[in-house]
Amino acid sequence: MRFSRLTAALLAVLLFVSFAGCAADPADAPAGMTLASPDFAEYRLYVPEEWTITQSGGAVSAYVSEKDPSNVSVMSWEMPYYDSTVEEWWQGYVEEFETVFTEFTLESAEDTVLSGVAARKYVYTGVLGANTYRYTQYAAVRAG
Question: How far apart are the first and last CA of the chain?
Answer without folding.
Answer: 22
